[in-house]
Write a sequence for this structure.
């Protein structure tokens, strides 16, 4: 049997194990969480220079509303839930609460940033005077030195998903004759990650929503984009410039070879990057006049500096490094990090996207997933770049095992293979939403003018709008919607109480962590997995 036959045979063998109602019901227990980043902008569409609003809580200790790189870059976080509609409701409520507390400011609706008035007008997020807060600030200061602040203003959706233990037990019974232990579950998640890398180009094509940028983002940068108008640049067939070399890029990280063969190799190779001194960062300096400029001069200051499309995750004590949590307790869920903000959805993502993401992840978990060799890795990178820069170009081909294959044809093959999984999820969740989502995306694949990236460029052209004007208009539309649909007073009161509690927790933390930052940092950085 050839490789393709093996792939199909194993997929259908695994699908068959979920055909009875009792076994399939475990698929209703997929857990989801969403982390949504949004820039705050002023009335002119310029990045806000105001500090994080105190009414939203202390970003260090507020679990639902925090900041990312910048003081002006909000991050809204939903708790884990098996009900994706509930997850979207919570995200909507968080948006309502934010709009109640940011005055005349708005939330930018696109992944590529708003009007930026230079590097020094991008304020780094502050987290108070506790050792934990200082470490978070210094880490971001290091990011600014290493990569520049402009790149750090790019926003996105992080989609967290956990497959239930019962799912892994079914697969383990098929292949090993016993229930899955944590090592088997972690191996299953890494197999899923490898397939996500293999097939991510499809979601970048269908959901990518960053085909254009404001000229202020390109300040001092070399690029190959076309001028779309006096103030905007982009590419006619681009889907996600955020995921291109224009977005997250760095020469130091290009040399990092993190392995996804399994948990042990992943932790080992990531730790190597965190231990390796990078001469250019040494030259920048770690301390100046007793003040930290960055956490260290290593290729990665900490794990989160490594940019990847999907991360294996384990929830746990924030004082313990992520790699140690993974090594000790195994993978608990995946964080998908390649999703652009959808400017046509008030909260940056819609229900059809979440259904498609669930189908996609379950497909990647069920499909055969051998280790990725050097040649295949090169093809994965090339296919991703072709898709994000030219994905809607008529006749575009991908490289599949060294051969050129039409992108649209490959997309339909994948969606066809995912259709039975959509049906399984429909049965498990007693809905038809998943099959509807597959049908919708098949239609989009047949008519790529329906993709978010194409719709953005079409609206810009039809309205004679620059990218920034398009995004400001959509931001105003969403703001009106949130202000017309008032938040439940009980929910508002709960969020207000959470904000107040977070301020109290911050004060307590600052009292507990008031001395010896150098010792605190050395202790944290020393908690490796060795």
């Amino acid at each position: 049997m050839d490789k393709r036959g093996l792939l199909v045979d194993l997929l259908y063998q695994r699908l068959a194990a979920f055909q009875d109602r009792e076994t399939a019901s475990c698929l209703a227990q997929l857990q989801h969480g969403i982390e949504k980043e949004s820039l705050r902008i002023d009335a002119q569409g310029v990045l806000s220079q105001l500090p994080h609003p105190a009414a939203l809580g202390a970003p260090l200790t507020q679990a639902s509303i925090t900041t990312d790189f910048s003081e002006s870059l909000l991050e809204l976080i939903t708790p884990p839930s098996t009900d994706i509609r509930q997850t979207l409701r919570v995200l909507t409520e968080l948006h309502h609460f934010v709009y109640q507390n940011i005055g005349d400011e708005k939330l930018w609706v696109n992944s590529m940033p708003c009007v930026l008035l230079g590097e020094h007008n991008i304020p780094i997020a502050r987290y108070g005077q506790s050792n934990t807060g200082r470490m978070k600030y210094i880490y971001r200061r290091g990011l600014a030195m290493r990569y520049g602040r402009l790149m750090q203003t790019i926003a996105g959706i992080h989609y967290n998903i956990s497959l239930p233990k019962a799912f892994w037990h079914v697969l383990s019974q098929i292949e090993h004759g016993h229930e899955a232990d944590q090592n088997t579950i972690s191996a299953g998640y890494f197999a899923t990650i490898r397939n996500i890398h293999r097939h991510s180009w499809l979601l970048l094509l269908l959901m990518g929503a960053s085909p254009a940028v404001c000229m202020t983002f390109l300040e001092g940068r070399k690029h190959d984009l076309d001028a779309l108008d006096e103030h905007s640049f982009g590419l006619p067939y681009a889907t996600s410039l955020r995921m291109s070399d224009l977005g997250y890029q760095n020469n130091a990280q290009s040399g990092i070879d993190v392995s996804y063969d399994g948990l042990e190799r992943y932790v080992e190779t990531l730790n190597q990057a965190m231990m390796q001194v990078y001469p250019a960062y040494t030259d920048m300096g770690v301390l100046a006049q007793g003040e930290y400029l960055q956490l260290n001069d290593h290729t990665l200051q900490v794990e989160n500096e490594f940019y990847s499309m999907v991360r294996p995750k384990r929830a746990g004590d924030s004082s313990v490094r992520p790699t140690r949590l993974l090594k000790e307790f195994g993978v608990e869920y995946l964080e998908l990090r390649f999703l652009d903000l959808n400017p046509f959805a008030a909260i940056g993502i819609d229900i059809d996207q979440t259904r498609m993401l669930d189908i996609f992840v379950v497909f990647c978990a069920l499909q055969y997933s051998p280790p990725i060799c050097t040649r295949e890795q090169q093809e994965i990178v090339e296919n991703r770049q072709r898709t994000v820069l030219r994905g809607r170009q008529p006749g575009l081909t991908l490289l599949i095992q060294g051969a050129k294959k039409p992108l649209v044809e490959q997309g339909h093959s994948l969606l066809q293979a995912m259709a039975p999984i959509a049906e399984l999820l429909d049965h498990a969740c007693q809905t038809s939403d998943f099959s509807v989502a597959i049908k919708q995306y098949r239609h989009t694949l047949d008519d790529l003018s329906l993709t978010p990236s194409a719709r953005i460029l079409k609206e810009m052209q039809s309205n004679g709008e620059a990218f920034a004007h398009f995004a400001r208009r959509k931001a105003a539309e969403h703001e009106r919607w949130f202000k017309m649909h008032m938040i439940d007073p009980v929910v508002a009161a709960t969020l207000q109480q959470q904000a107040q509690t977070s301020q109290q927790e911050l004060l307590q933390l600052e009292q507990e962590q008031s001395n010896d930052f150098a010792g605190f940092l050395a202790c944290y950085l020393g908690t490796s997995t060795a």
The first helix runs from residue 3 to 16. The radius of gyration is 23 Å. The domain at 3-526 is CATH 3.30.590.20 (Creatine Kinase; Chain A, domain 2). Residues 198 and 263 are 18 Å apart (CA to CA).
